[in-house]
Write a structure and sequence with these properties.
Blueprint (H helix, E strand, L loop, with lengths): L5 H16 L20 H15 L11 H4 L5 E2 L2 E2 L1 H10 L6 H6 L11 H12 L1
Antiparallel strand pairs: 1-2
Helix pairs in contact: 1-2, 1-6
Length: 129
């Protein structure tokens, strides 16, 4: 498969999200959060991963794109906040996501907002090499 440009990758990700979430393509901006802005629920992430695999010919392991198991792990969370160790683990496992805003609150409730359209695009670009 020829190397995709960032714009082509974004366009394919946009098509996947429009199909999976039933949103309009103008809502699927790089900054849009999958949960807050586009209304994705946890079950949708499985569908999105499956559709990304088909669209890009990649294999996505469970928890690879969105390692929610980190924020459910008592080793990484205390009193509803991600610990330093948890933040380090998220950074290691999510090089595709910008964790700067999340790092300020570290609230488990804010974690879904890490998943922006741009994070998904970056994830796919990493997978494609």
């Amino acid at each position: 498969m020829a190397k995709l440009t960032d714009e082509q990758t974004l366009e394919k990700v946009r098509e996947v999200l429009v199909d999976a979430l039933g949103v309009d393509d103008d809502e699927v901006t790089p900054e849009a959060t999958l949960v807050g802005d586009l209304g994705a629920e946890s079950i949708d992430f499985l569908d999105i991963a499956f559709r990304l695999e088909k669209a890009f010919g990649i294999k996505i392991e469970e928890g690879e794109m969105m390692p929610a198991n980190v924020i459910n792990d008592p080793r990484y969370v205390a009193d509803g906040k991600v610990t330093d160790a948890g933040l380090d683990e998220l950074k290691k496992r999510m090089p595709h996501a910008n964790l700067d805003t999340f790092a300020q609150t570290r609230s488990v409730e804010d974690f879904p907002n890490v998943f922006t359209v741009e994070a998904v695009v970056n994830f796919v670009k990493n997978k494609l090499g």
